[in-house]
């Protein structure tokens, strides 16, 4: 009886041991699967995180390239080609990172490409900054050159203005000036003899006498003298074809002649015959020489 119980107990104990072994094995399997799933989940999370990070990195690199297009810089052909190559690489990376899953090999390859791009963009930006500095220096030099040119131009214009003023002063100083200008009215007899008159009804011509103010700057040569005669109403008596320039403007003259000037106190006379009839009132005359007003006078006829 005792032996039978021992056999039974022994059998139960074996079953219990077997169950324990099975339970331990199941627990170990579950633990292994749990750990494996957790690791796979962590690895998947890590891969997705790295993929997102790489996407962000690529976008930053693209933004860096886009900044160059906003700069007012003329890129060299080499820099343009390098930018085009970089943008092709960025497009390839974006397409690769848009895949649902990346293998570890693909991820590592993408990481290497992004690293290369980052190094390229740094070198590229260094080149752009150097180009900016060169452009800035060149612009500064050009601005300085323009300023110098402008300053030189202003000085040249000022010098030209002063020369013109000096030339005008010299010409004015060298022009003849009349003194003792006197106007006399005459009637002319049939014999040709001139009779001085004071009445307008009998006057036929005006005789203008004058001296020349001594002037060492004036040329000792022939000088053209122009006479302008105005009637009592202020109207110029002149042929419209008789034109000359004086005092910076073109005007008509009544009569002209040439005199020989030798700075020897010689007195001169100009006779002007009125093509019309004289009227009562004051007649005014102005003399011009060398492009300037020479002198003036008037006569009153009764």
Automatic annotation (TrEMBL):
Keywords: Coiled coil, Membrane, Transmembrane, Transmembrane helix. Residues 44-71, 114-169 form a coiled coil. The chain crosses the membrane at residues 16-35. This is Chromosome partitioning protein ParA.
């Amino acid at each position: 009886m005792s032996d039978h119980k021992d056999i039974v107990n022994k059998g139960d104990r074996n079953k219990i041991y077997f169950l324990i072994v099975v339970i331990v094995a199941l627990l170990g399997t579950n633990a292994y699967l749990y750990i494996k799933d957790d690791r796979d989940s962590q690895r998947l999370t890590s891969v997705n995180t790295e993929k997102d990070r790489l996407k962000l990195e690529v976008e930053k690199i693209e933004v860096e390239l886009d900044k160059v297009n906003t700069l007012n810089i003329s890129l060299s052909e080499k820099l343009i080609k390098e930018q085009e190559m970089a943008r092709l690489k960025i497009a390839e990376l974006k397409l690769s990172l848009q895949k649902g899953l990346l293998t570890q090999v693909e991820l590592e390859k993408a990481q290497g490409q992004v690293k290369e791009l980052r190094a390229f963009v740094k070198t590229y930006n260094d080149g752009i900054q150097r180009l900016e500095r060169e452009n800035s220096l060149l612009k500064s030099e050009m601005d300085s050159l323009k300023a110098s040119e402008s300053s030189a131009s202003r000085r040249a214009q000022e010098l030209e203005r002063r020369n013109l003023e000096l030339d005008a002063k010299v010409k004015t100083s060298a022009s003849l000036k009349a003194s003792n200008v006197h106007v006399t009215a005459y009637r002319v007899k049939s014999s040709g003899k001139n009779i001085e008159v004071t009445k307008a009804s009998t006057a036929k011509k005006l005789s203008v006498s004058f001296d020349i103010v001594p002037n060492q700057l004036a040329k000792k040569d022939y000088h053209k003298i122009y006479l302008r005669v105005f009637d009592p109403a202020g109207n110029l008596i002149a042929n419209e074809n008789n034109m000359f320039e004086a005092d910076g403007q073109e005007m008509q003259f009544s009569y002209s002649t040439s005199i020989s000037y030798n700075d020897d106190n010689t007195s001169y006379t100009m006779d002007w015959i009125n093509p019309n009839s004289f009227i009562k009132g004051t007649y005014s005359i102005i003399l011009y020489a060398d492009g300037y007003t020479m002198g003036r006078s008037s006569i009153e006829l009764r």
